[in-house]
Amino acid sequence: MQKSLWIFFIFLGLLSCKNTDEKPKVANADLQMYEASEMTILMRQMYEVNKVVKNQIINKDSLLDFPDEFKKIHTAVLTDPSERDDEFDILATSFIDLQKETLSINSDSIIYNYNKSINTCIKCHETRCTGPIPKIKKLLIK
Ligand code: HEC
Fold first, then answer.
1. Per-residue pLDDT tens for 15-35?
2. How confident is the model at residue 108, as a pLDDT?
3. Which residues are within 8 A (CB) of 102 and not within 5 positions of it... i.e. 6 or more apart?
4. Is 110 in the pocket of ligand 1 (CB under 6 A)?
5. What residues contact residue 50 under an 8 Å CB cut-off, 6+ apart?
6. Which atom of ligand 1 is nearest to 121's Cα?
7. Does the C-beta of 128 come closer than 6 Å to ligand 1?
8. Which residues, 6 or more positions from 139, have their beta carbon under 8 angstroms from its beta carbon?
């Protein structure tokens, strides 16, 4: 197998919901790829986009437009559909509002707004999908 593929699998292992204390095995990573739900794919996009946004804010670059795909958080199919309860919907709505605010209002409060939106990611993950929390925390601007 090509080296780049291995790196990709390890990267997937780091992001997944499950506890990543164990070294990711390729068999598991393969399985995760086949089982990746619509929501998982969306979440990975949200993660990558926010990495870009963080750098744009730090470098005082102009910010990308709010990605309309993010609204799919309200409809995307979850691995475990029972995780979509009232609290999920409330957090999803405030996440979308805060990301829109961050990306559309370039003001002194941009870092505050951005961190608030990332804290919504963390809040939702505390009860549903704890694995990626350390990675998500790194998105915060200190
Ligand atoms: C409203 C709740 C909620 C919000 C807000 C939320 N997530 Fe998630 N996230 C989830 C759930 C639930 C899953 C599991 C999805 C599944 O298994 O179908 C998930 C999965 C993930 C994954 C794991 C994907 C994988 O490879 O297994 C990552 C990474 C992630 N989210 C990052 C983020 C980031 C970054 C943000 C904010 C920019 C965010 N999430 C906001 C609920 C949320």
1. 788 765 555 555 555 555 557
2. 82
3. 53, 63, 110, 113, 114, 117
4. no
5. 118, 121, 139
6. 41
7. yes
8. 47, 50, 51, 54, 118, 121
